[in-house]
Amino acid sequence: MITFTEKFQRLVGSVTFNRIYKYVKKSPSENIVKLINLGEKFLGNTFPKKNFDSFRNAINDETSVWYGYAERIIDECDRDYLKKLLLALGLGAGVTGTKAVRANREKYHCNVPFIILLDPTSACNKKCKGCWSAEYGHKSSLTLDEMRSIVDQGTRLGTHVYMFTGGEPLVRKADILTVCRENPNCAFLAYTNSTLVDDEFCEQMKQAGNLTLAVSIEGSAESTDARRGEGSYAEAIKAMELLKKHRLFFGISVCYTSQNVDFVTSDEFLDDMVSRGVRFAFYFNYMPVGHSADTALIPRPDQRAHMYTWLRKVRNSHTGKPLFFMDFQDDAEYVGGCIAGGRNYFHVNSEGDMEPCVFIHYSDSNIKNKTLLEALQSPLFMAYYHNQPFNDNHLRPCPMLENPECLRKIIAETGAESTDLIEKESAETLCAKCDKFAAEWKPVADELWKNNAHPNPKTQFYRDTEEAKNA
Fold first, then answer.
1. 280 near 324, Cβ under 8 Å?
2. How far is CA 236 from the centre of its chain?
3. Which of 2, 258, 289, 471 could join 386 in a cystine, given CB atoms 3.0 to 4.6 angstroms apart?
4. Model pLDDT for residues 273-313, shown as the tens digit of each residue
């Protein structure tokens, strides 16, 4: 539910956006800076002033890749769609959401997430190697009312960003669009294999304004089809063409493995994605989850070290690429380690089980008998709250992949149960698949950590209650 204050803020933001946007193409740098100033005005002291100064400096430097990035978004994205998306992210998530999340963390003495991931269904029309959903089949789905309840409860806590996973979430695209339309103050993203993207859906996305897609792709046609099935690469490219034609903001989701890491970090791949209209790229380290998982696909320590240096290169304002990159494993130093367990996000599967992480399938709470807040205060989630970060070296953030002894201890102490829909997987079975990598990565990660400068992320996003600081 949108409050009167939020409605007023959206009205003011919309009118101001329209006025500035009219002149952006006449003087891009000057008026994009005005948009940044508008954002700073609404956000107040929610984020450090230096963040806004960095944005302004990048836009004022016409040699910066970010100048071209911003200019292309303004030039190539539908104006009304872009406005709605920015209002959802800036006012809904940035202003209302961030303040409420911080206040409720202190009020309830538990993690409260900035993002919630949810699976509308386990159904999927693909059987990708290494994906647990390939094993689940068309077994379960959240009802529309359950999806509504998750978003309603989440927004009351301050969570204004929701990501649909699966299964293939667009199997439920009608219900997803309904939830998006009912919550214009929230931003939504769906990870999709792209097979269900068509002209009609693109127009519906444009009208809703607060939904974007991350198209799954594994690099080359050969590597994508090898993991996702023949024709998958062509389907992904076709979807990108449609999204670009309809002037929508969209990105890609890349699972990097020992077999494709070189290509998905190559100039050839990245330049091709930029030319196809891709605006952001989310990279995920392959996780050996599920009984069919192949541990040989876990990136080797030297490949993880490559990811660490590559990320800093491609985000450089002068030598990088005009894409917003995020690697949820190798970017942990910027957020103080693991962000799961509700610290910045958690996951609700298609059965309603609330899991601390989309890759860690254990739970002690279900939306059918507990509220989101009750789950966040449950033994499993509180174990995350009290133990994060799981390692002082934030290049080793995960309690499963890099610190498997931590997940073993958490599951043993909390009694959380496996939520695998086909065959229960014990914490010992899962963690045993990670032991070898964890041992081999430790000396490499420790050397990188020792020999490089790192940010200090101890802001209100990081252990921001006295109880957590003293834990």
1. yes
2. 19
3. 471
4. 999 999 999 999 999 998 889 999 999 999 999 999 999 99
Q: What is the pLDDT of residues 149-207, one digit of tens each?
A: 999 999 999 999 999 998 899 999 999 999 999 999 999 999 999 999 999 999 999 99
Question: How far, rounded to the nearest angstrom, does the alpha carbon of residue 430 sit from its chain's CA centroid?
Answer: 23
Yes or no: say if 326 and 312 are a contact pair by the CB < 8 Å rule. no
Query: Residue 213 gets which letter from DSSP?
Result: E
> What's the CA gap between 311 and 467, in Å, rounded?
34
Round to the nearest angstrom and report the end-to-end CA distance of the chain: 35
Q: How far is CA 84 from CA 12, 73, 88, in A?
A: 13, 14, 6
The neighbour count for residue 108, using CB atoms within 10 Å, is 14
**H or E segment to which residue 284 belongs:** strand 280-285
Spatial separation of the C-alpha atoms in residues 389 and 226, rounded to whole Å: 36
| C-beta atoms surrounding 319 within 10 Å | 10
Tokens at 349, concatenated: 């599967």
In single-letter form, the type of residue at position 436 comes to K
Question: Chain-centre distance of CA 358, in angstroms?
Answer: 11
Classified as helix, coil or strand, 405 is helix
> Can you tell me the distance from the alpha carbon of 100 to that of 162, in angstroms, rounded to the nearest whole number?
16
User: Is residue 162 within a helix (H) or strand (E), and if so which, with residue range?
Assistant: strand 161-164
Question: Is residue 295 a contact partner of residue 436, using CB atoms and an 8 Å limit?
Answer: yes
* DSSP label of 219: S
Entry pTM: 0.91
Amino acid in the structure at residue 347: H
Closest CA to 363 of 378, 350, 345: 378
Decide if 135 contacts 162 (C-beta within 8 A): no
Phi, psi for 326 (deg, rounded to 5): -150, 130
